[in-house]
Amino acid sequence: MRNVSERQTAxxxxxxxxxxxxxxxxxxxLLHAATLLTAEPPAANPHAQRLLTAALAHTYAxxxxxxxxxxxxxxxQALAARFARGAWRYHxxxxxxLDRLSPQERLVLVLRLYEGVAEEQTAALIGLPVExxxxxxxxxxxTMRSPRGAGLKAAS
Length: 156
Hints:
Layout: H1 2-38, H2 46-61, H3 71-85, H4 103-114, H5 119-126, H6 130-145, H7 149-155
Helix pairs in contact: 1-2, 1-3, 1-4, 2-3, 4-6, 5-6
């Protein structure tokens, strides 16, 4: 009986070490992605931090089932899904670099351009046709490039 208990304890410690190593290597980039999604300034991003914490908790809960899968991809998926479910909370002016975009535009832009996720994967992840993802991305890029885009968003 003691042998089983020792193995379980060793397994839990190994799992915790693996997860801690993953977080140490990936948390900075994932927090930046979450900050872009929430359109918060990098120095004051409590919503992004909560979003990332929830996504990491989801990844940790599934850690033992991730064998062969990339935990970064899984965490990014959880982050995008959590953001999409609660996107209405992130449509306020917060002073972030992507503040001029709608939550959906931010999600597509962050996945496509910051994270480098292919159009097909982005479409599957957020449940939209590839053509719609392409159109949203094009519109978001145009908005970000337009100096008067800020005035148009504020007026609507």
